[in-house]
Amino acid sequence: MVKKVIYGNHAVSYGAKDARAEVIAAYPITPQTQVVELLSEFCASGELNAKFIKVESEHSAMAACVGASATGARAFTATSSHGLALMHEMLHWASNARHPVVMANINRAMGPPWNIWTDQNDSIAQRDTGWLQFYCSTNQEVYDTTLMAFKICENDKVLLPGMLSLDAFVLSHTSEVVDMPPQEEIDEFLPPYNAKYKLDLEDPRAFGSLMFPDWYYELKYHQQTSMEEALKVVEKVGKEFGDRFGRHYGLVEEYRIEDAEIILVVSGTIAQTSKEAVDVLRKEGMKVGLVRMRTFRPFPKEKIRKIASKVNKIIVIDRSISFGSEGAFFTETKACLYNEKDRPEIWGVIIGLGGRDVTVEDITKIAKKGKDGKFKINEINWWGVKL
Amino acid sequence: MEEELYEVRFHGRGGQGAVTAATILADAAFREGKDVQAFPIFGVERRGAPVAAFMRMDAKPIDIKTQIYEPDSIVVLDSTLLEVVDVAKGLKENGKIIINSSKNASEFDFGKAKVYTIDATAIAVKHGLGTKTNPIVNTAILGAYSKAVGNVSIEAIEEAINEKAPRKKEENKKAAREAYEKIRGG
């Protein structure tokens, strides 16, 4: 076991190295560049026995990962913001062809105006590409999720690509303590990828050929059922990881929700700060709890329904916006509760776009405003907007 | 004091190593069993422009992920910043300010804050860290921090320098030790 004080970016690099990624194709973009720098050093020094492919764009990076994964290799890349947007076509490719590529995305706002700070609009915009999406809140979780993502995505019942997101600067450029297990224990947890279907001269197959309407529809059905299976696999792998390494993970993290009357639904680093806010409010006697969303795709509907059945009020805090609608986590949370008999009141708050800092005080004020029933229903509640 | 959240802000100019200083201090506190965070002010750095960096330490796990607005102590790597940046902004009452300066601490007035000075530039030049016109003072000033604040030992800082300093580890450790012994004020 090695504990080190490292950047979130380097937590990704160490995760990919310890997962023994075999092919890494990446193109640098602020604030992700350090991920690729360190991985290229690992490859150059021989510490990681992987093929590092320098590419001319993110579109090519993902194309190279798709090709590598098709041959049965464990493929990895990292990007951010506009880089992710440029990959869009190939994201569909990876998922539709069922290649379990793993990618780290540093959540950074989309320009113009140019902004290198954090929000989730880049990854949320890739919602329908068929990728699993994980949101991390500490550097430790970034490292752990990189390892778990390979195991989840490569599972026979899933076979879909996965993206883990971490907030620009708040994690990417922040040094925190990260505990990295011995390589042999990681190897036991994550054996080499043994692709069931791959490009193989002895057993030739084709990927990505023409599919007529009589069968395309069925493939989409299976993509969806695999996503639904992934709900179970995420929980199973998170438990196995915890049993081995002492840190348990699930689809959501519940924080002080027992006896809570009001619950905050949050993802990313804001959720971590919100824990402090929950502690402050609990000391004041407020029955408040937190649900930290670890996955956005698949969306943990059953979990949310179960938690919501015990509370009166829910505030969903989004660090992204679907223009013309509202925050994405807000929409999804409401949608999965619509058919419930006993629905809580629910409000959506948008906060922290483009990296505006979100403080403990912001969260305590939001929780109090919700408790007092002072948020607008059926409208976006903007927090701290200067008008 | 060691049992509570403790927050430090570093002021320097791009290229002086303020971010590295924050990271080395975090690494040192981690070696003494603390949970830690170190981060730059989130943004674009340019050589010579004022920059800031932050360090948090706590005996308990740290959840909070915000910037630091009310630091317990402040470290100034370049005294010319005193004219252009409000370095004491948000400093807690009875907080500490450690300034890289050849002057006596009594020549600075920050109200209730305790002021310390160390000629980190001279120490850095003496140990061949950086150049005469562009000395790297971050390790020397950490030695001064260790003595002034007392919540991270000089030995832990030396170990952290071994881990994090990209080159001249021995010279950097000597500079930290010398500053630890020569700091004035309080």
What this model shows, in words?
The complex is a heterodimer of chains A (387) and B (186). By secondary structure, chain A is of the alpha/beta class. Chain A has helices spanning 8-18, 33-45, 58-70, 81-86, 88-96, 121-124, 139-154, 183-189, 213-245, 268-283, 301-308, 328-337, 360-371; strands spanning 2-7, 23-26, 51-54, 75-80, 102-107, 132-135, 162-167, 175-180, 252-255, 262-267, 288-293, 295-297, 313-318, 345-350, 381-382. Chain A has two domains: 2-245, Thiamin diphosphate (ThDP)-binding fold, Pyr/PP domains (Rossmann fold, 3-Layer(aba) Sandwich); 252-382, 3-Layer(aba) Sandwich (Rossmann fold), CATH 3.40.50. In chain A, 41% of the residues lie in helices and 19% in strands. Chain A has a seven-stranded mixed β-sheet with strand order 3-2-4-5-7-6-12, sandwiched between helices. In chain A, helix 1 (8-18) packs parallel to helix 7 (139-154) and helix 7 crosses helix 9. The longest helix of chain A has 33 residues, at 213-245. The model of chain A has no long low-confidence stretch (mean pLDDT 97). Chain B is an alpha/beta fold and 186 residues long. Chain B has one domain (6-185): 3-Layer(aba) Sandwich (Pyruvate-ferredoxin Oxidoreductase, domain 3). Chain B contains five helices and seven strands, in the order E-H-E-E-E-E-E-H-H-H-H-E. Chain B has a seven-stranded mixed β-sheet with strand order 2-3-1-4-5-6-7, covered by helices on one side. Classes of the chains: A alpha/beta (387), B alpha/beta (186). The interface between A and B is medium-sized, with 26 and 20 residues. Strand 8 (175-180) of chain A pairs antiparallel with strand 2 of chain B.
